[in-house]
Amino acid sequence: MKPGEIAIRGAAESRIGKVPGVSEVELRAEAAVLALADAGLDVSDVDGITSATQSPLDVAHYMGINPSWYDGTTVGGCSFLIHVRHAAAAIAAGHCETVLVLHGESGRSQVGRPPRVQPPDSLFMQFEVPYGLYAPPNSFTLPVLRFLKDTGNTQEHLAEVVVAQSKWGEGNPRASRPDLVTVDEVMSSDMIAYPFRKQQCCPLTDGGGALVVTSAERALDGPKAPVYLLGSGESMDTSLISVMDDLTSSKGFRQSSAAAFAEAGITTEDVDHLMAYDAFAHLPLYMLADLGFVDRADVGAFIAEGNTSPGGRLPMNTNGGGLRYTHTGMYGMFAIQEAVRQLRGEAFRQAGTPEISLVQGVGGMFTAAATLILSNRRP
């Protein structure tokens, strides 16, 4: 598959934040209707569908779609990046023409949300839960403490991530945390699990999003300019943080991004805009280093110096990220949505006129990884 053969023709989010009384499948459907309208298409034009956590067959039935191709890959927050990659391959192979990539999650209100429990015979339940690892905040603490110790970055650098992203999200009426914050305010917020303070952890919200993925030629018929897929990648590290090869670096991030860069035929120097999955403040530091943008000893200073803030040379997480904008439990869809908005010139706070945006996702803790490289120009 050549860069630019597949494109995003439509993109939209449902209501986000606190949406009581709306189930997860309804959030998916709401986003789908909006994305199809954005694409100038109808449900009858769709012959492919994806859904994480809930069966894509159930979602297709709910929406009145009879797909010739579907994907229910569920590997955490980067599932939707992987769905775009898989949809692109399916379209290129002729299995379908128009795919709805869907997300809907009632993370806050818990409406129509199936239980998501780890089976007792899973590796996590056998080998980490008995030792006190239970939820993301305390599962991430061991890697981040090792990262800070080995690289010389500091807890204040973690706070700088939040500060930089608050500059992008300030005043956004859709943001869960639309206020501007300082390092002192972040550092004085409640301790959740050392070294994470509340402001360094994502909020828990409701919301959904949808993408209409099709061939570049079919995308040209839409009411808006297409956003082209230049490259993509997927990989993994391990489902157990305790047995990572290196607690200070993600093998998944390195491998998925390397595949995407190779497919797109570009380097970090060509990237104008970065969406780095940020359920917690340390993840952008890992991603900047593992993707090759900055040496890992310098990532904290890179952000503190304003390089990722408005006016900086690498605008990052320009919707405020998962830390400020929204985080339903799986954030990847919203990172893609912001990349599309930036490339279309439709963002709440534009990062100039970017031509190439990279979206890096993670699933589980450091378990799964996926990368998309998107552009408003076809090679």
Total E-strand runs: 11
**Number of helical segments?**
14
Instruction: Provide the succession of SSEs.
Output: EHEHEHEHHHHHEEEHEHEHHHHEE
CATH superfamily: Thiolase/Chalcone synthase
Query: Measured on Cα atoms, how large is the radius of gyration?
Result: 19 Å
Cross-sheet strand order for the largest sheet: 3-2-4-7-1-8-11-10-9
Cα distance, first to last residue? 13 Å
Describe the structure.
The chain is of the alpha/beta class and 379 residues long. The chain has a single domain (6-113, 203-375), classed as Peroxisomal Thiolase, Chain A, domain 1 (3-Layer(aba) Sandwich), CATH 3.40.47. The protein has 14 helices and eleven strands. It has helices at 24-39, 56-63, 79-92, 123-127, 136-139, 141-151, 155-169, 183-187, 216-219, 251-264, 283-290, 299-304, 321-324, 332-344; strands spanning 6-13, 48-51, 69-71, 98-106, 191-193, 196-197, 206-215, 227-236, 273-276, 356-363, 368-375. It has a nine-stranded mixed β-sheet with strand order 3-2-4-7-1-8-11-10-9, with helices on both faces. Strands 5-6 form a two-stranded antiparallel sheet. The longest helix is centred in the N-terminal third of the chain and has 16 residues, at 24-39. The chain is globular and about 55 Å long.
Q: How is the topology of this model organized?
A:
Elements: E1 6-13, H1 24-39, E2 48-51, H2 56-63, E3 69-71, H3 79-92, E4 98-106, H4 123-127, H5 136-139, H6 141-151, H7 155-169, H8 183-187, E5 191-193, E6 196-197, E7 206-215, H9 216-219, E8 227-236, H10 251-264, E9 273-276, H11 283-290, H12 299-304, H13 321-324, H14 332-344, E10 356-363, E11 368-375
